[in-house]
Amino acid sequence: MLKLSMKALVCAVSLSVAGVLHAADSESTAPISIKFAHVVADNTPKGQGALLFKKLAEERLPGRVKVEVYPNSSLFGDGKEMEALLLGDVQLLAPSLAKFEHYAKPLQIFDLPFLFDNMEAVDRFQGSEQGKALLTSMEGKGITGLAYWHNGLKQLSANKAMREPKDARGLKFRVQASAVLDEQFKVLRAAPRKMSFAEVYQGLQTGVVNGTENTWSNYFSQKVHEVQPFFTASDHGLIDYMVITNTKFWNGLPDDVRSELQKIMVEVTAEVNRQADDLNKEARASIVKAGTSEIIELTPQEREQWREAMRPVWKKFEKDIGADLIKAAEASNQAQ
């Protein structure tokens, strides 16, 4: 009986070990799951970029990587996505640059109003030594920046025509959770209201806020033109994104996988940034065609009035951001 029992035990242990090895083998061959969450629609620069990243990653790393894309705050909204990244519940995000002030103060530079004259200046700064250094400025807090993705320059919208800075007085503007953007509207004697992107349409429709700021592609994709009768073509600020990942997750990837994903990110970034301008032009044309809103074009003199009205914001945040960094960004307006 003892011999039979020992034989049965050895058999059972062998089967158990085989099962563990099989499970370990299955685990090692399972694809790496990458959840890419964002808060905008698929037909925006960010939305298109996320889908292209998924396509190329799964094509070039077949069976090794699986990318799931969650648009329109369908996985995590504005208020929860950063926490989710740090907890490992999502692996890739592309938040607006306005979302990073609590992680690295110098990144507030991208919210300063009227800092960049055009997107070419933005490209020059982001591609500079100072711009690239900002991508790694949050690694001490567990966040690695992989790329800058363009959305475009911001325009103002409101339930009344705004041609001069004084026209904004007393209005309630939706803003992202950013101290710089708060101050931007306070210097105009307007009232900033923090609100998640997913709530903007309803907030404008119900009068919780009277206006906002965004790019043409975001306005059109969220149908803001249906609830805002006036847009001011101000090009006053930047909405760009930083594609970020959890530092521990990224550094823990197999070297060859990480290297290939980096190459894909470079390729996708070039395509996103190429498409962004076209998408904004198309969106603006679609808003005009809809006929629901008037677009107010500013003269150079009128735009300068807005610029001067908002310049005190630069001074207020100069210490946090760094005077040298602001000078470098301003210098990018001059083509080399």
Automatic annotation (TrEMBL):
CDD domains the record matches: PBP2_TRAP_SBP_like_1 (cd13674)
GO cellular component entries: outer membrane-bounded periplasmic space
BP-aspect Gene Ontology terms: C4-dicarboxylate transport; transmembrane transport
Signal sequence extent: 1-23
Source taxon at top rank: Bacteria
This protein's record includes keyword Glycosyltransferase: no
Family to which the UniProt record says this protein belongs: Belongs to the bacterial solute-binding protein 7 family.
Protein name as it appears in the record: C4-dicarboxylate-binding protein DctP
